[in-house]
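Hi there. Long-time user, first ticket. I'm pasting a complex I've been working with (about 1477 residues overall). I'd like to know whether the download I got is complete or cut off, because the file seemed smaller than I expected. Thanks.
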Amino acid sequence: MVNLKELKKEAERILEEGKVKYIIGYERGTNGFWPTPAFIKNPEDVEKLIWDPTCVYNLTRFLVDEKRRKAKEKKPDERPVAIIVKGCDSRALIILLQEKFINREDVHVIGVSCENGGVLDEKKLARRVKGKKALKVEFGEKDKLIVTTEEGKTEIPAEEILAERCLECKANFPVIFDVFLGEKTKRQLDNPFHSLEKIESLSKEERWAFWKEQFDKCIRCYACRSVCPMCYCDECVVDTINFAVTADTPAEEKAQKIKWVEKSPVSSENFVYHLVRAIHLAGRCIDCGECERACPLDIPIRLLNKKLEKEAKELFDYEVGFDPDQPSLVSSFKDEDPEDFIK
Amino acid sequence: MAEEFEPKIVAFLCKWCSSAGSDLAGVSRMEYPPNVVPITVMCSGSISPLYIFSAFNKGADGVLVSGCHPGDCHYIKGNFYARRRIALVKKLLEYIGFESKRFQMSWVSAAEGTKYTEVIKDFVKQLKPLGPQTQLRRNL
Amino acid sequence: MKRTGVFVCHCGINIAGTVDVKRVTEELSKHQGVAHSEEYVYMCSDPGQNLIIEAIKEKKLDNVVVACCSPTLHETTFRNTSKSGGLNPFQCEIANIREQCSWVHKDMEKATEKAIDMTKSAVEKARRNESLEPISIPVTRKALVIGGGIAGIQSALDLANTGFEVILVERSPSIGGHMIQLSETFPTLDCSQCILTPKMVEVSKHPNIRLMTYSEVQEVSGYVGNFKVKILKKPTYVDPEKCNLCDECTKVCPVVVPNEFDLALTGRRAVYIPFPQAIPATYTLDIKSCPGLLPIACGKCADVCEPEAIDYDMKPEIVEEEVGAIIVATGFDLYDKEKMAEYGYGKYTDVLDGLQFERLCSASGPTQGKILRPSDHKEPKEVVFIQCVGSRDPELHCAYCSKICCMYTAKHAMLYKHHVHDGQAYIFYIDIRSGGKGYEEFVHRAVEEDGVLYLRGKVSKIFEDKGKIKIWGVDTLSGKDIEINADMVVLATAMRPSQGAEELAKKLKIATDKDGFLAEAHPKLRPVESVTSGLFLAGAAQAPKDIPEAVAQASGAASKAIAILSQERLYHDPTVAEVNVNLCTGCGMCVNVCPYEALSLKDGKVEVNEVLCEGCGTCSATCLRAAIQVKNLTPLQVHEMIKASLGV
Amino acid sequence: MEKTLLKRSFPQWVKKLSSYKILAPVRDGDFWNYEVIDDSNSVDLNYLNTVLSPKKIIFPQREVFLEFSSSNEEGLEIKEVLPDEKSSVIFGVRPCDAKALTLMDKVFGDDLEDPYFLERRNSTILVGLACNTPPSPNCFCLSVGGSTHSKEGLDILLTDLGDKYFVESLTKKGDELIKLAKGTFQEPKPKDKPDAKKIQTDSEKKLKRQIKEIKKVTSELKEMFDSPFWDEESMGCISCGICTYLCPTCHCFDINDEVTSSSPLKGKRVRNWDNCQFPDFTMHSSGHNPRPDKASRLRQRILHKFQYFVEKYQSYQCTGCGRCVSKCPVGIDIIEVVNKVKDYES
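Hi, the file is complete. Here it is re-exported in full:
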């Protein structure tokens, strides 16, 4: 069980010792009981820190901002940034290291284990406590979560309100950290790709109908990629605007910009956008489920990435997010890679 | 009776094997259907998934990717990366319910003029009953 | 907007027969940005080319598309044409409407449609082509030859005699390789040492050759024309300048170890000279078998060394050199004896391999050329030679044919008969491969003049029996079982790439085939080149070879190297990768996939070594952010080609 | 005109409106959205706030302005494309969303008239539903001069009285709709109106969230342009487009030429929603970006809503629907941000 006091003590220590610039963690939000990312600079503010099943965010996303900010600073503060990571978040960190986007010495990793297997699914919870308004959710004993509503506490079996991804999590504790709180209780997984079965069992036509309905909803608010720590490109290939230009970028180079996808949120363009994103996340997505959570229209984006994670495992025996030194999925191959699909 | 549907196919051919193979087919005057417009690239390894999605988005009824046989790559190993990348694209397209018969990969060596014609013939035959590709075609 | 000129060739009726050339020309004239469009019966003819040149000048064309035959045929032609018209050659593109269209279709209507799309596609590409100049590279006019066998010696001499400096690196104390161990050579039976030693001497005396024996290549970097190599010079603890070959040291050296040169048929001391005619002619103190230098355990050799040539303080030395070309001639080894246990090899002293038998026959060998069996020094009266030991055996050993065994076994049998007139030689063979000048005749001579007995079949069992070696086998021609009580057995064991070659290949980035032999760039057309330009292959390192073949390839490799060294500068195709640093995040995926190690990371961005880059574009397909692309086949160009091909 | 309508006869009314295109909130999984209704019985007014406001109907995310094609040598042939849909009725419009449309009227109907917007706006009739209980925990309409029962921008306002609706027609358009189904309406009973009034006051009490002393905000903001406040507040922002795309008042757009064929040239000029929170929103082709960071973009959003718009149109560009608060993936809360503005000393 992660001891919040210890967590705060550690936070206080590193801030007082001036070991880190600031701490990226979770604090209670103002919109109901959901948290909001906390960026804590002063030791006296560590009291704000929380850790409970509502801490859904993958905070590594903010290391991307930090890098950008730092790049702009004249004399940057070279101290590392401390960050609180769950199992999935830590795998995101692995990818960022694997892709040399951040240096290990620039982060002080405070790893926390997901007690009883993970974080909440907002909608599942709402459905479960039907009508009643949840005020607080805590980790309970063995695979139970304690939900407090206006009408008091109720124990709910974790799997009923946990995020789908948590039920399929390979390791609900960090694989990389400087400090670790909690214990490495690996939940036993009979089927890590369970959530795919429904769609996989459909016929081709049904699958198309399903995804078409989903992507037709897309309003291209790009929350999926904005919240994704792997979508750290300065400019997304599908964007029609030259973003990574500088004052001395020649006109020809700007003219080189390709409209792979039109800005209009019409079916075909939405499809291509989501396909490109999925393929670019193949072997990189660590299934933190943030894209799906952020989507205001509940498009099950995660199921796209999860599918490719499954294929990577089954076709190429490629596991994502455990080894920062492993070459990326598409920049490596095995002689025995399957080719039965090739004429 | 209405005229038979003629699929439009974009074929990405690597310069050293498949494109040379198609040249050989020409030199040997082998006949195959004219539905394919070849685009010669240096190596099958240089074919980005974006090319494939884009071709369908621009209205291709079928897309063919063809490179050297494993081990024969002019660039030593480009086709191995292609093999992996294309496998993922194919799986993804299948998964979203896209008609995966429309997307084909083949190994055609510079000596395989016959194979090239066979690949094209079969592909066209496979595409005709499917009719025009509308799933990813730009609908602006 | 760029002004493009389109030139459609009839190629007589080759194109015009199935493609409506007029229509293609018309349609293209309507295409955005096409300023000129015309047809002609033979564009490649002088009048045809002149049309292009004039159009470029009159219509002020920026680029040219020729719709004609395959670019493999006339791309160069028309690029030169464009050049004489005043354009950069890269402003010319070919639409292959013959091989890829007119020759493979019958339906004129549809073929024409396709030809139009193909030409439009070419236009879209052409108008986005960059004008490029070939990349020019300076050349270090010096060569490195790795391996001092006959192949390496030949290459080194050819290079040196053409006037280029050569560094010849050999890891053992003397050059000469396996050839110097042989007694006679087929099919002429002339003495191997007699024909090789003069070449060895020439090497040692040649002003252009720097001979580095007892040395190994440690590291190779750079690229064609500009390789940097690190060579480790192992200490011999004997100063060749001072050593006067008095041989006193060996007399006092207390250690005896098997003599590599005689393949363990004799012994040598820790301080030794490999063989009398060794080049360089000097002694070597083999530190592995010496009782020890730190601290000095024995020190006798130094004590007796008059000229004080022995220097225990000699240190390994790393020599750095720059060369323009490298020839790899690392030769072969025989198949390991461990793997040959079923033939009793290594178990019975009188079961020998081919090279050991060569030593037995050799006048300079352990028996001064008398053929005596190792166990009891008796003259063997019945000798069984077995071919294809380890070769042509995909299940258990090597799938390939070692090529030279048929011939040298015939030679061995013959030599044996010449030494032991009343002896009997048997040869077990699968079949006889005697392709080569005078080879077939040679085998016949063995049978007819020397009465060698060829038995077609494989040996089923070999075992010792009352001081004899019993061989069971089947004669597959007669179907009879055979049993021979032999005094000696000689195995024609398979040839393998020399030990350590694999490791060297990695350092040099040369591919190896499934058997570990160095891979040539093309099995037919580029047999002496490796895929990496500037690196060449010679001798048995590439595949089993006999002496004349090895020598021929060595000269071939040398001439290829000379082709590079003889130039002031080299020119490299400029259609290479370029990086958009604004987009690059330095993830290094492209670095992983580059087959030529042309990419590297510097301050978080990727850099292209334009000389190493071959322009395959695998990097650009791998990059998630379109930060790297190959000039003149950019994603934008492909994107526009896709659109044109689909008429959108 | 004031009437009452029994809930059970509601479908009959809708049926009578067959000459109109009918839109109403439709449930889709866990959320609601406005969809075209073909079955009059399927109009269900027991809905929570829709994800997207009726903005998306009158100011669609994608709008074609014109079509162009290069007809041989004469250069371009251009054809304007104006919306020509039959007039439509939107049921179940929340007062806040209706008010939002009046704010857009100021933008698109002021000094510069936008024919595309106005065409749709004028051909649309808004039947509102008063919020007896705030449909979202983050409703704060009162703070920004709205109300759970505000009539602003509506043609008809329905108030749920249990088994019936209290129906107030506010415009001619509204009267038209009622006339079409005279029979189905009754005259209100004396206590109906006070009841409705009471429900309103009760429901306004139920509003949990509010911006305190909003009057001060505008002047405060004027002083805070260069304040580090924006850096602190924007730390958690991920620069997605949710807050503004879901906002009923945000109206920024981007105009693009979509080329469907390059030779011969064919294509459409289209308007798409754009979004001040996207990093490339203010990107210049020179590479210069006047709003280079999240701070300047969050500031823009707040200032536009609570300063610039006020200065130009004497009204906040926010109607307190709470969508941006509820849907922000990182819990950025405009109510809190604005509340902090007031008591921020730099």
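A couple of notes from our side: The CA atoms of residues 21 and 77 of chain A lie 7 Å apart. Chain A has a mean pLDDT of 92.
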